[in-house]
Amino acid sequence: MTAIASVYQHDVATYWNTERNPVNLRLGDVSGIYHHHYGIGEVDWSVLETPEDAREEAVIAELHRLENAQARFLLEHLGDIRPDHRLMDAGSGRGGSSIMANAAFGCRVDGVSISQAQVDFANEQAAERGVSDKVRFHFKNMLDTGFEAGAFQAIWNNESTMYTVLDDLFAAHSRLLARGGRYVTITGCYNDVYGLPSRAVSTINAHYVCDIHPRSAYFRAMAANRLVPVTVVDLTADTIPYWELREKSSVATGIESAFLEAYRDGSFQYLLIAADRI
Description:
The protein is an alpha/beta fold. It is built from ten helices and seven strands. The chain has a seven-stranded mixed β-sheet with strand order 3-2-1-4-5-7-6, with helices on both faces. α6 (166-176) links the parallel β4 and β5.
């Protein structure tokens, strides 16, 4: 399988190859850790009262703190990771979570993305930090990486499952995970109780060229692929403050109102799911 195996994947790769949103780059400039995901936790609203000449910088730093908190929360659910273990970041973006994982555990991390621009950027970041011997990013498709079976102690997707068919994704991850290994995802999913995706969820799909799955699809596909959930955390209430602050920031993209509407009306949820490979 080639890295880009369909017209849809080509469209996704094109989107991320050309993406230069300040909400990703400006936040990453704060510490040199660049993410492509959202934030969780209580907001320090005093940043909005900062003197005008320093207010924007304070808001950007607070948003970056919240996205780092989200990445740490995910990494804390990877289980007992040792320096001799190997991890995979599926849909690794500009590499921030992989670099954080190596710093936390001292282990080898392989990131994969179908965006060559993201892969190149992330490898440059690893080289600048002197960790390219342990943290490497690959132009590969997460559905068929070519890595050897059972090679990984843990694999994660951070807001990237909505670009795949879940059965295909979890089958690929199950093959790569060692028996007893851990899979973790943080993802937005639509609430089956509300039926089909709401108008706000459909707006999010169109904005990001993605296909948000129903909550139930995650558990069905995991069960079919030897992945048994051990922890499920509803982070919806924890992410709303991030979106409220982002809506007031200079890096707002216009999608904030759709996220807030969907989270508040209950049609959209933000979940962490951790599962063991049996």
